Structures are given as C-alpha cells and as structure tokens.
Amino acid sequence: MPRISATKQAILAAALELGALHGISGTTMDEVAERAGVAKGSVYYNFASKDGLFGELLTSGVSSLSRTLREARLSATGFASIEAMVAGMLTLIADNRALAKLMAAEIFRTDRAWQETMVSLRREALSEIEAALAPLVPRDTSESTRLLMAGGIFGAVLMGGLEWLLFSPGTPAAEVSAALLFTFSGKLDAGSPSAA
Amino acid sequence: MPRISATKQAILAAALELGALHGISGTTMDEVAERAGVAKGSVYYNFASKDGLFGELLTSGVSSLSRTLREARLSATGFASIEAMVAGMLTLIADNRALAKLMAAEIFRTDRAWQETMVSLRREALSEIEAALAPLVPRDTSESTRLLMAGGIFGAVLMGGLEWLLFSPGTPAAEVSAALLFTFSGKLDAGSPSAA
C-alpha cells in the first residue's frame, strides 16, 4: 500500500464519517476540513475535488473487499470457500462500518464521476465469489448467472451485516456468520428442521 | 389505497426519477417541479417539504413491499413460501426499478426525518420473511437470528435484482429467480453438482 500522510488520512477518515452519515451530496469540503481539523486549502491540496476524494475512498474500499474475498477463496475449497468468504466479508464490514454504509448507498448509483472505475472494481469483487461458486454449480451455468448468484451472496452479507451492526450489535460475529450461512446451507429446503 | 391527484402523482414520479439518479440530497424541489411540469407552488401545496415528499415515497414503497411479501408468504407453505417471496420481490423490483435503487441507497441511512417510520416499516417487511423462515429453522433459533437471516435473504434479492436490471437486463426474470434460489437450495453444499 502506498504511504499516505497523516493529514490525508485525517481527511479521508472525516469524509468517510460524514459521507456515511449525510451521504456524499450532503457533505461539503468545508465540513470535511472542519471535521478533519485541517485548513480547507489542505483538503484541496490533497484532493482536487469532492468527487476525487470520495472516488478514492470508495475505490480503495472495493479493492480491499476484493483482496479479502480472494484470500478467503484461496484459503479453502468447495463450500468451505463460501463460508470463508462470508466470514471474511462480515469481519471487514464490522471493522469498517462507515465504509460499508457508504458502499451500500453508492453501489447502484450511476451518475458518479467514478462510476466506470466502480463498475469494474465491483465486477472484480463479484468475480472472486463467482470463482468460488463455479465448482459448486451445474457445469452448464453461464458466467452471467454465476455473477447474479455472486451478487445475491454479496447482497445477503452486506445487508445482513449492516442489519446486525445497526439493530443487533450484541450478537457475536460467529453467530451472524452462521445465521447467514444457514440460509445457503440447504437446510431451509430440507423439510422438517432438526433441533440444532 | 387513497386516491391521489394527477398532479401529486406527477410530483411523486418526478421525485422518484431524480432521487434514484442523483440521490435525495442531490435533488431540489425546483428540479422536481420542473421535471413534473408543475409550478413550484404546486409542489409545496402537496408536500410541506422535500423530506415530506421523499418520506412519503419511501414509506409507501416499503409498505407495498410488505404487502407483496405477505401475499407471497400466504400463497404457499414450507420452502415454497421462500420461493414465492423471492419471485414476488424480483417482480416488484423489476416493476419499480427507480424505487428499488432509492431504497437500496436509503435503507441504512440514519439521519433522515423519516427514520423512525422507515425502521418500523422495514422491520414489518423483514418480519414477513422471518415468519416464513420460522418453520424452516431449528426450533431454538432466536427471533433476532431469524431477522438476520431475513435481512440476508432480502439483501440477496435486492442486490441480485439490481445487478440483474443494471448489468444483465436481457436475462428472463424466472432465470434470475432460479439463480438466487439456487444459492438458498442447499445445492451449493451438496458436494459434486449434477449437470442440471
């Protein structure tokens, strides 16, 4: 990772907090400077524009999502790779709650300056899930169908994870992971459930 | 449903289009009036504020989601009720793409005037999924765990559905539904897949 200055880091952190709370359109560079405790000139010295600032936040967020997913995928095989990905994503969301909220809000926006970059980075992240799915689905499943499944799994973990952090933060991460994985385990469709 | 005037309908439709494109903070009442082809006074005659306008859009959207989910749940039993809910939600998303985008962006915002209403309405919608899950999960599963599972299923369909509409709109709805349900069917965890 490239080294970034303490000032730049403070600006990124302030932008993230404000963006997660008020949205990107509802956040101004003045507010970012104030929250970061730096002069406005310093914000513009580090980022040419608000678009540049939030674009960098979001693209680096999706890149670290992809890295987490790839590591999880390579750490196991078969359905265990899906389990590792769900657990890895949940940890990432819990450790970066503001970023997860911002990503949930931004992921389907189509009017942003960084749209092209985001579409290709999101595709990269989904491709990691898709690669883990490939050996688990019928051989004639098309890549676009596998990507839809990957999008569904990603959505389940993102929404389930945010639901957890906002509405039942006392639940241990392992229980959340188990609850989400239960829905992918086939036990829902297994007829009468066992008393676990 | 209460009858609403053609003007009010035009304002709501314009607000929805603009909000889905530029976000709520990025949309002004002036722009809503212009897009709806009505005078600005007419917008304020119908809605006291932008918050009131978007609050009405979102709460009525979540209410119709709950209705759809309840009807689907009552139309079948066992895992088939989950299948009916996924299909019903996908149809709703496809028929109301702008609303689905807006809801995805707003669902975890915690600084909105309508926040309280949205939290309780979202809970109502998730409770429908939770009620369908109850007979399918181990008897000692807590309500909060079932709600997390419900949030995951909701997230999978919302994100999978938007992924579909934005990136592979040519895929028939039934295939999308089948792809998402496949991940909940347990076939992922079934070892070597059959050639479907």
Automatic annotation (TrEMBL), chains A, B:
It comes from the Bacteria. Residues 28-47 bind DNA. Transmembrane segments: none annotated. Coiled coil: none annotated. Keywords: DNA-binding, Transcription, Transcription regulation. Pfam families: TetR_N. SUPFAM superfamilies: Homeodomain-like. Residues 5-65 form the HTH tetR-type domain. This is TetR/AcrR family transcriptional regulator. GO terms for molecular function: DNA-binding transcription factor activity; transcription cis-regulatory region binding.
